[in-house]
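Reproducibility note. Readers wishing to regenerate the assembly model reported in the main text can use the exact inputs given here. Chain order matters: entities are listed in the order in which they were concatenated for prediction.
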Amino acid sequence: MSKKILFPQIKGLLHGSDYNPDQWLDRPDILEKDIELMKKAKMTSMSVGIFAWAAYEPSEGEFHMDWLKNIMDKLYENGIYTILATPSGARPAWLDEKYPECMRVNADDHRAHHGFRHNHCMSSPKFREKTGIIINKIIDTVGDHPGLAMWHISNEFGGECFCPLCKKKFQDYLADKFDHDINKLNKAWWTSFWSHTYNNFSQIEPPYANGEFSIMGLNLEWKRFTTWNTTDYMKSEIEILKRRTPNIPVTTNFMQLFPGLDYRVMAKELDVISWDSYPFFHNNYETFADTMARSSFDHAVMRSMKKDQPYMLMESAPGLANWHRYNKLKRPGVHKLFSAQAVGCGSDTVQYFQWRKSRGAFEQFHGAVVDHLGTDDTRIFKEVAKVGEMLDNLSKVKGTLVKPKAALLFDWDNMWAIENMRGLSDETKNYPQTCADIYHEFLKLGIDMNVVASDDNLDDYNVVVAPMLYMLRPGAADNLKKFVKRGGQLLATYLTGYVDDNTLCFLGGFPGNGLSELFGLISEEIDTLYDCDINSATFTNGNKAKIRDYAEILRVSDADVIARYDSDFYAGTPVVTRKTYGDGKSYYVAARLDMNAMSELFKTMLEETETPYYVLPDGIEYHKREDETGDTIEFYLNVTDKELSFSTISGDKLTLEPYGVKIF
Amino acid sequence: MSKKILFPQIKGLLHGSDYNPDQWLDRPDILEKDIELMKKAKMTSMSVGIFAWAAYEPSEGEFHMDWLKNIMDKLYENGIYTILATPSGARPAWLDEKYPECMRVNADDHRAHHGFRHNHCMSSPKFREKTGIIINKIIDTVGDHPGLAMWHISNEFGGECFCPLCKKKFQDYLADKFDHDINKLNKAWWTSFWSHTYNNFSQIEPPYANGEFSIMGLNLEWKRFTTWNTTDYMKSEIEILKRRTPNIPVTTNFMQLFPGLDYRVMAKELDVISWDSYPFFHNNYETFADTMARSSFDHAVMRSMKKDQPYMLMESAPGLANWHRYNKLKRPGVHKLFSAQAVGCGSDTVQYFQWRKSRGAFEQFHGAVVDHLGTDDTRIFKEVAKVGEMLDNLSKVKGTLVKPKAALLFDWDNMWAIENMRGLSDETKNYPQTCADIYHEFLKLGIDMNVVASDDNLDDYNVVVAPMLYMLRPGAADNLKKFVKRGGQLLATYLTGYVDDNTLCFLGGFPGNGLSELFGLISEEIDTLYDCDINSATFTNGNKAKIRDYAEILRVSDADVIARYDSDFYAGTPVVTRKTYGDGKSYYVAARLDMNAMSELFKTMLEETETPYYVLPDGIEYHKREDETGDTIEFYLNVTDKELSFSTISGDKLTLEPYGVKIF
Amino acid sequence: MSKKILFPQIKGLLHGSDYNPDQWLDRPDILEKDIELMKKAKMTSMSVGIFAWAAYEPSEGEFHMDWLKNIMDKLYENGIYTILATPSGARPAWLDEKYPECMRVNADDHRAHHGFRHNHCMSSPKFREKTGIIINKIIDTVGDHPGLAMWHISNEFGGECFCPLCKKKFQDYLADKFDHDINKLNKAWWTSFWSHTYNNFSQIEPPYANGEFSIMGLNLEWKRFTTWNTTDYMKSEIEILKRRTPNIPVTTNFMQLFPGLDYRVMAKELDVISWDSYPFFHNNYETFADTMARSSFDHAVMRSMKKDQPYMLMESAPGLANWHRYNKLKRPGVHKLFSAQAVGCGSDTVQYFQWRKSRGAFEQFHGAVVDHLGTDDTRIFKEVAKVGEMLDNLSKVKGTLVKPKAALLFDWDNMWAIENMRGLSDETKNYPQTCADIYHEFLKLGIDMNVVASDDNLDDYNVVVAPMLYMLRPGAADNLKKFVKRGGQLLATYLTGYVDDNTLCFLGGFPGNGLSELFGLISEEIDTLYDCDINSATFTNGNKAKIRDYAEILRVSDADVIARYDSDFYAGTPVVTRKTYGDGKSYYVAARLDMNAMSELFKTMLEETETPYYVLPDGIEYHKREDETGDTIEFYLNVTDKELSFSTISGDKLTLEPYGVKIF
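Running the prediction on these inputs yields the following C-alpha cells for the assembly.
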C-alpha cells in the first residue's frame, strides 16, 4: 500500500486552528493582525466558517459571501490553507423562528427553544433544504479556491430528537430492519415480557423520558437509529460536496468515545478521521501519566477507524479549556508534549480551538492562541509557536503509520447494551474505563494497540483482548474463533457472550453463540461485589491478583485452570483459564483482576507470539510510526514533571526534561 | 377459632413461583421441560398470567385463551396448582394506542407514553371496562378448573395519577369526606394560612409538582385518596371474581412498608395477605442479622394485617435480583434460611419470581429457578429443590399461627404525615427504620411483635410500643388509655401527639388529645441535633444512654422521672418518665435513645406483665408458631456465616451451621 | 444631616412581629389572649395582613374589611402600632381559577398550578388591577387609622416568570435599552459567536431551561430585567399608597444577598430598608462566631442601602425555623444576642415571624412568640419578653447611625456575571462568601464596613476592598481611580476587570477599562487550583500566605511587588503588588490568599489612613452607633458559649456570660 499524504500542499505537518473572522468583520485591524501572528506561530491552516451561517445569510435568502473569499484569499496569499466548514453546527435565529420544525424535541416530548448549537432535527427536510442552499452558496463562492484544503462537515455531531418526524423515521427504520414483520421484532425484543407485544410498527415510540424504557432491544435500536439518522443527514451534506468538489476530502470532528454515536458507522462516509481532544490535565484523581495514557487511548480509537492512513487532531486547547470542572492551566511544556503524543499516535496535524478568543458568549474564556490581550509575547503564544516549529520540521513523518500487533476489541453497541443492562451494579460497570486500563498496560510495555470492532478483520494482530464482550454482534464469535485458530492469542473476561445483537440472552450457557467451545467453559453465575468485598486469585505459578466488582463462577470443561479464587463460597474454583484452540490460545478471566496481574497475562501472550515488548521506565510513554519501507520514527515522552534519565529500547541513554519529548 | 388452612389441596406448605409460559408458546420443548423441572424442584403451585394480557387478547376483541387452559391442565396433571392472575399489571400496546385515557398523567401534568407497567389510571372507566372483559374471558375459560387455587389480583399496585378524571374524583372524595361543606375543609386544613382558602371543592387540585404543596392536610388526603381509589379499582376486579367464582380466594401482592398505599385499607378486601420480599442480602451497610431482622419486621407487618390466619410469601428471588444497587448473589444456604424465616413468621408459602429467566427485556437477569442455561444442576436450582423438600415435610405447620404478646404501633398515614411535616430534619426523621429497630430489639429477646394500627384492638397484647406517634387518628388516644388502664405497658416517644388526623396541631400542649394526662407531662420544645451534637441520658439506676437526632424538653407534672439529660442547656431535665395509670404503666421517652437503653425498658415492661422472654445468643433468630391446641413449632435461624453452638430456650444444646436452620 | 427617627410614636426601639389574626377570627378568646400576651412581651408593633387577601375578599368583589379595623383598633388601644401589609404575597384561589394569567410560567415553559405563594406574574395587568382594588379597599378602611405606622409591600419578592407577557416585556425592555437597534445588542452580546445573531428583538427569548443559555449578555440582562420588572410592579403598589397616604412610609422585606433581585434598584423606591434574618445557628460546619459574623455582614448589606438612616429587622425566628436542614433550637441567650447585634449594626427594630404558631399548613412548626401551648411561661416567650425589656430601654439609640470608614464593593450583577461565567471552577468561585470573609476580617479589627456598589460615592471611606470585581459597570473604573487619587487605600484581587457591563471582555489586557494603569500591571493568565494543589506566597517582609483556588500570573509594569509565589511554574513571580497613585495606594492581590494574610494588608491600609482599629479578643464582636453629635453607643457581644473576660477598646475590664451582651 502506498503512503497516503493528507496535505501534500503543506511542507511539514499541518499546524492549524479554528478561526472565526466572521466575529471581527468590523475590525479590519484585528484581521490584519491575525495574519501577522499566524505567520509568527507557523500556522499552515485555518478551519473557517464553523458557525458562520448567520454571517453568510443574515436573513433568509440574503447572502453575504464576500468576506469568506477575502479571508481565504488573504490566508492563501500568506501560505495558509483553509479547512472550510459547512455551517450547520448552529442555526440562525431567523431559521428557527420561521421553521420551528428544525429544532429538536427532547426526551420529555417538548420542542427546544432556539439557542445553543448542535441541536437540529436530523430528519427535518426543511433543515436539509436550508443547509443544502447555504453549502451550495459556499461552493459557488470558494469551491475552486486554491486555498481550500478540506471540507469540515458541520461540527461535533451529537444528540437525539424525539419529534414526530424522527418517530416516524424510527418506525420506518425498524420496519426495514425487521422485514416489515412486527412479529420478528416482537421476538427479537422479547416483547411478550410484561405484555409489551406490538401489533404494528406505528405503535413503537422512541424511549421518551416518561415512556417505554423497559425493552432493552428498543433502547439499543434507538441508539443505533440515532447514529443511522445522523449519518444519513451527514451524507446529505457530503453528497453535495462530493458532487461539486470531488477532489476535496471531507471529514467531521469526533469526540473520544462519544457515547451518543457509533463513530465507526459514520467513519465509512468520511475521507479522513479527525477529532477534538481536551484532556483533564493536572487533575486531582489520577497521575499525569494516566491522563496522557487515556489521551493516547483516544488517539488509538481514532487511528483504528482508518488504520491505513494518518488522522487529524482537529481541535485542542492551546492553554486551558473553559468547560472543565476545574479549568487548570496546562503547565509549560505540556502543549508540546501533548502535540508530540498526537503525532506519535498517528496524527498528521495539530490543530486548535481556537485562534483568537471571542470577546463574549459561551466560550470567551476558552483557551486560544491569541488572548484578549492580543499580543505575541504571551506564554501560550510562544508555546504554540514552538510546536509550529516542531511540526514544520517533521515532514518526514507525513503519511507514516502506527502498525500495532495488538488490538483491543471495543464495540459502541456493546457499550450501550452494557450500560442499559439491568443487573450487576450501575456504579461499577465501567466498560470504557476497563478498555482504557487494558490499553494502558500495553502502552507500558511499549506496545501501541489498535481499538477495533469485534467483527473487524483481525489478521494483522498477534494478540487481541476483548474485555466484557457482553453482546456478540453477528460474526463476532466466528471472527474470534478464526483469529485463535490461525494462531492468535485471545483474552476475554467476565461478562462475555451473554446476549445477541438484539440483547436476547443466549440459551444453553454463557459465553454463547459457540464461544463456550472456544474457551472450554460455561459461566454459571456472576457475583457483584461491594467495595468492601475482598477477594483474590492465586495463579498456579504462585502469583496473586486482587479481585473487585465482578466475579463469575465457572464450569470448566475443557481448559487449563491457571488461577483459582481464594475466598468466598467459590474459593478454589477457577477464575483464569487457558485453552489451546487451533494454533492459538484463548484466555478467560472470570473476574475483574488488578491490572498488574492482567499485565502478566499480556506479557505471556506477547511472548507466545514472539511479539517484542519492552517494559518502559515509569513515566515514559513511547510510540512508533513506520513508513512503507519499514523506516521508523520513535517518540519518547516524559509524562511526569520530573527530569528522567533512562535507556531507550535500542539501549541508548536518554535524558528528558520534565514533560520533555524526544523524536528519533 | 378454628385453624384456617389456605391450601388444603396441597400436602405440605405451598412451594410456588411466577410462571410465564406465554413467553415460550413457540417453544413446546421448553414448556415440556418446565414440567419436568418443576417436579424435580417439588413445586406445588405456579402463579400464571401476571402480564399475559397481550397473549390473551393480541388485538382488541381477538381472544386466544386456549394456551391458558392447556397450561393449567398440564400443571394440574402433574400435581401443580395454579394461582391465576388478572392481567391488569400491564396494558397491551393496542389499548394505549386506542384509549390513551388509560395511561396516567404524572405529577408534572403530562400524560405518560405507553410503556413499562403498573401505570394505569385507576379512575378510567375504559380501563375498568377492558379489564372486566378480559377477566370474564379468563373465568369463562378456566373459572371452574380444578387446578385453580387462588386469584392474584393484578400485580404490585402502586403509583398516582393526576389526570382530569382523577382530579374530579379527588374533589368528589373530598366533598364526601367534608360533608360537602368547603368551610369544614378550610378549617381542617387551616387554609387561612397564606390566603389559601377555597371557595368550593372544584378549586382543589392534586399536589402537582409545580402546584400546591404547602397544605399538609391536602398532601395527606391525596395519599389517602390514592389508597382509596386504588382499592376502589381493585374492588371492581374482585366484584367480578367473587360473583362468578365465589369459592376461590383472592389476594394481591404487597411490597413491605410500601410508602404509596395504606395496605391495611386494601387488606380488608382480600381473603389472604401475600407479599413480595427482596432483601438486600450481604450489603455493605449493615450486618446480615440486621438484614434478616428487617425482613422479619416486614413479615410481621404482613402477618398482622390478618393475624388469625397464615399469609403468603408471594415472590422472592431464588438467586439474585437485578434491580438492587449491587445485585449480589445469595450465599449458599441463605435461600433455605430466608424461606424458613418466612414460615417461622407465619407464611404458609414460599414462592418465587420467577420460574424461568426471560430471554430479553427488563428482567432478563433477575434470578429465577431455571437459568438461561436451562438445566437442573445449577447451584440455584439445587437450593430451590432443597427448600421444596423442606416445605413438603412441613404439613404440620399449615394453619398454625404466630401469637405475639407485644405489638408495635405503626400507622401508614402517620408515616406520610411525618415525612411531609416541615420541621426537624428530613435527613433524620427515619420513622419506619425506628419502628424496625424497636422490632429488632424484641426479636433479640425471642419475642415476635405484631405491627398494628393505633386504633386496632389491643386486647391481645401485654406490651405496646408506639414510637413517634406524631399524628393521632380518631380513637387512638382513647385506645391507648384503655390499653394501659386494663394493665398494659405502653411506651411512647418524642414526637407523640402533635397533630390530629388532618395534621392540625393540638392546642394546649403536646402530646395532645388527652395523652398528656396519660403520660403526666407536656413536651415544650423539640431540639433537632446535628450528627456532631453529643448528648446522653443517665437513668436513676445509673444506666447511661446515648442520644441522637431528637430531644424534647419536658414539663413533667405527674410522672416518675427515670432518666435525665446529661448535657446541653436542658441538662438535668427529664428525658424518660413512667406513670402508673389504671392497672398499667405508661413510659415516655423524650429523645432518640440508643437501642440498648430502649431494650432495658422493654425488658422491664415484659417483666412487669410476666411476659416470658429469652435473651438470644448473638446471631440467632427465633420464631414460634402455635396451633389451636397450643402445640408449638419453633424455628432457630443462624443469621451469620459462622457455625454457632448455643442453648435453646428449652435448654437443649444446638449447633447450627453457617446460615443454618433448625425447626422443632 | 438631622437624625432620622423611623418610629417617633414609639418610645423605645420597635419590638414587633408578624401577626395573623385572620387565622383566628372564629376564636375571639385567642384574639383577646393575644393582646394580653403582647403587652407582657412588651410588643410595640404588629405586622398585619401579610397573606390576608382571602380574608379581605373571600370571593371576587365581596369584601370583608371590618375585622382589620377591629384588630387595629384593639392593638392601638393597647399601645401597639400596626405595620400593614399589602396582601399581594399570595393570591386567593378564586383569582387563579378565573384569571390563570396571574400564575407564573416556569423556565420549562409550563404555567404553574395554583398554590404556594410569591409566584405571581409581575407583568400581568389583571394582577395589578386586582391588587390595586384590594389595596384601595384597605386604604378606604384604615388609611387614616392612627395606629398605622408603615406600609409593608407584599412579602419577600422573588422569582421569575417566562410567560408570553413577560417575554414581550423583556423584548420591549431590550429594545429600549439598545435604542431599538438590534445590531447594538448583537455587538454588546457578541452574538456572532455560534451564529447567534438576531434580526430583531422579537426573536429574543428568556433563557428557558431548554432554550438559549449560551449568551452571557442575555443571561445577565434577563436577571436585570427581572429586577426591573419586579420593581415596576412594586412601584404600581407604591403609587397608590403614596397618592392616598403620602405620610405613611413604605418598605418591603428583603432577604440577605438574595440572588434573584438586585435590591439596590428596589431600595431606591422605598422609604425604609427592612429585611428577614434566619441564620443557621449552632450548625455543624462553622463556628458560632462565624455564623454571627455572616449575620453581621448581611446587616451591613442592608444598612448600606440607605446609610443615612436606620433600617429594620423585619423578621426573625423567636425559637427555631422550620425550613432549615436541621431545625435546631436557639440556645438560651442567643435570641437576645442576635437582637443586640441587629441594633448594633444599625437596625432600629427587632421583629419576628411570627407571633403565634398557625395550627396547620406549611409553617405550623416555625418558631413563634406564642406556641401551640398558648402560655407565657415558655422559655421562648420569656426570652422574647427580655428582649422587649431591652428595646424599651434603648430609646437613646433611635436614629443613631453606624458610620464606617471602610467599605466593601459588591455588585449584584457582578455576582450574576461571575456565576454565569464559563471558566474557573463552579465549585470554588464563591464570590459572596469571599466578600463575607473579608468583612469578617475587618469585624475582628473592630471595624464595621459598609457594603456598597462599585459606582457608589466613596467619599466617606478611607479603605475600600473590591474583591473579584470581574465586571466593571460604567463609571466603576473612574470611581476607583478617583478614590485612590484623593488618598484612599484600595485593594483589588484576581478576577478584576475582565468584562464590561454586557460581559464583553476588555481587549488589551486585564484589568481593563483603564484599571491596569491604576494597579500598574496586567494579568496574563489565571490558574484554577484543585483542592490538592498547594501554593503559597512569601511577602517581602518574610510573611507567608497560603493560596488556594485561584492564582493569576501577572506582568507588573509599574508597581511594587510585595509578595511572590513560592511554587509551581510561576514561582517567584508577583502575587501581591502595591502602587502609589495620586495621594492613595492601590493593592492588587492576584491569588486567593488566606484571610490572615489579607488581614495584615488591611491593617496596613488602615494604618496608612490613620483609621483606628482594635484587634478584638477571640469570640468578641463589636459594633458602634453614633448620633449627630458624635456621642456613641457601643455593643460588645460574646459570640461563644463560654464566659469571656477582656479589656474593652477604652481599656475597661469586661466579663460577658456565654452569649452575653453589653451595651454602653
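We highlight two features of this model. The first strand of chain A starts at residue 14 and ends at 19. Residues 406-608 of chain A form a domain with the Rossmann fold fold (CATH 3.40.50.880).
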